[in-house]
């Protein structure tokens, strides 16, 4: 405004001189005086004001510039971090796709199984729809890809077209007789030990199968008798990685924990698992053979859980069974096997300090769930959760469970999550004791990638555990990334997937058990 005033003033002065000329009244002294006056006016008070204003203005501009610079720096680092996470997601996706592609291209795809494989002449189980059985639909070298299995007997390789046709019942057919069985047992159980020895003998003598057991079990068997020297085992853990090439069928003797143990041994393709129930609950162990009897040994008396087992006269440590398990195994070895295809979660821990070494920590695969909790810390967990890069929520409470649908009846159930049929593909997002009234559990689709991050301003560390094992500390800045694993676990059904599931929630949890209301009472007219 001051500058404008100045210009107006000069214009007026100019006009005055012109009118004087027009009047023929030119006085050079007065002109000189006027100019001097103008100069004085311009230079003195106005210039001083402009300078003050300019100084103020430039200071303000400097402050704004500083703030903008800070904002830009913050934005750049946020963008860099976002780009880093995006890169990690893409890497992980690419890895999963590559693994899937490997399975498909190595002849493990639909219609490509020819029943031959490395290291074992036994044929692979063939996947088929119970309503439309198809011998050309095959899981290949023990590789049962979830996507393939979900196809409705369609051999079209266009995955997108056929993916929505979900099969109701899935069964496996042997192309030729299975040859090698891996038996996994719950440790420290007298009943399991007895049953294992009996089963090994029967499978070898009657079924002519090769038997593989864990090193511990082989020692136990050989301690009982040198007869068991034919039983195979492995020397070091590297051999476990190759087990899927050698083994046609896995038998578990124990509870759900033994099924989790068996699944954890196979990071990639999993042979069909036949879970015998020798635990107390057994949601994933539909083959039941136990009640309780007393076993007397020379030193003590054990009360053990056994159904249909009776002790032979004269030998306190020898037991014969009612051939119950033999019937089950006979039917399994004949096939087809009705199976529940249990999805698993692939988990990566990403350390803040190892941002550029994505491969540094080995991935962990879980059948039930991965739990992120506060461990021994007494502070609330503070977990930032993202689903495919979209912010989901911040979990403040005891922790969070990311569960498979198989795991929905385990820890997630105890934390208030829904029970979900194991054949439903999805990831359960269940908080543990959230300190909020409105935090309901979620079920997310199976294709998402979840990231749970411990924020930098978290008061404490968090702890991740995998199927209740392998606890890992997550420091502020660390994250856990989790997505559906490419290899599910096929577990044999006693009847079928739905019937077994319903039986386990009825028998195991007494789900919705209530006395039926009698007819005897008030009723609608
Ligand atoms: N508060 C809880 O309910 C709680 C706490 C910790 C762990 N767990 C569960 O225990 C599992 C580890 O099992 P474990 O046998 O090695 O440990 P464990 O010996 O401590 O047994 C845990 C119990 O969970 C049951 N269980 C396991 N998987 C199940 C499933 N899918 N459906 C229904 N019940 C199931 C088992 O039968 C067993 O009774 C974890 O994956 C977790 O789900 C539950
Ligand atoms: N082969 C194995 N080697 C080492 N540990 C095992 C093995 N099988 C099972 N376990 C572990 O032993 C524990 C108990 O196993 P499991 O749940 O099968 O029996 P359980 O506790 O008697 O069953 P339930 O919980 O139904 O009563 C679990 O923590 C499991 O991880």
From TrEMBL:
Entry's EC annotation: 2.7.1.23
**Alphabetized GO MF terms:** ATP binding; NAD+ kinase activity
Alphabetized, the UniProt keywords read:
ATP-binding, Coiled coil, Kinase, NAD, NADP, Nucleotide-binding, Transferase
What InterPro entries does the database record attribute to this sequence? ATP-NAD_kinase_N, ATP-NAD_kinase_PpnK-typ_C, NAD/diacylglycerol_kinase_sf, NADK
Segments forming a coiled coil:
68-102
Catalyses: NAD(+) + ATP = ADP + NADP(+) + H(+)
- Cross-referenced Gene3D superfamilies, in alphabetical order? Probable inorganic polyphosphate/atp-NAD kinase, domain 1, Probable inorganic polyphosphate/atp-NAD kinase, domain 2
Q: Does the keyword Amino-acid biosynthesis apply?
A: no
Pfam families (UniProt xref): NAD_kinase, NAD_kinase_C
| Domain of life, per lineage | Eukaryota
The GO annotation for biological process reads: NAD+ metabolic process; NADP+ biosynthetic process
The similarity comment for this entry is: Belongs to the NAD kinase family.
Q: What protein name does the entry list?
A: NAD(+) kinase
Q: Which organism is it from?
A: Actinidia rufa
